[in-house]
Amino acid sequence: MRDVTKLVLYTRRDCHLCDEMKTVIREVGADVPLELEEVDVDGSRDLKKRYGLDVPVLAADGEEIARHRVTAGALREALRTRQAGRHGA
Fold first, then answer.
1. 3-state secondary structure of 26
2. Is the peptide bond before 33 cis (omega within 30 degrees of 0)?
3. Which residue ranges make up each domain of the chain?
4. Residues contacting 59, CB < 8 A, separation 6+
5. Sequence-separated (6 or more) residues with CB below 8 Å from residue 87
6. Residue 61 pLDDT > 60, yes or no?
7. What is the pLDDT, as a whole number, of residue 65?
8. Exposed e or buried b for every residue in 24-47, given b needs 16+ CB within 10 A?
């Protein structure tokens, strides 16, 4: 069984780049086990201050792996690299 990667997507409503990134994540998630939590930065004063208009931001285990845009290939590679690092490969 492959490990499930837990992702957090910092997003906001009516954000076309956020919608594009969600589409890529869903595409990759069709064949890579992952869990996605979406966090609306406008729901927190701290997150709104931290990210401002600089969304979407995708993080895995608290580490940023993509900002603004990501391709399916780049996301798969980032996840593969993280997986290899967890297993000491």
1. helix
2. no
3. 5-86
4. 7, 8, 9, 10, 65
5. none
6. yes
7. 95
8. bbeebbeebebeeeebbbeeeeeb
5-86 CATH choice from 3.40.50.2300, 3.40.30.10, 3.20.20.70, 3.90.1150.10: 3.40.30.10
pTM of the model as a whole: 0.90
- Spatial neighbors of 61 by CB under 8 A, at least 6 apart, are 6, 82
C-alpha angle 34/38/71, rounded to 5°? 60
Distances (CA, A) of 44 to 7, 12, 47: 19, 11, 5
User: Over the stretch 5-34, which tens digit does the pLDDT of each residue have?
Assistant: 999 999 999 999 999 999 999 999 999 999
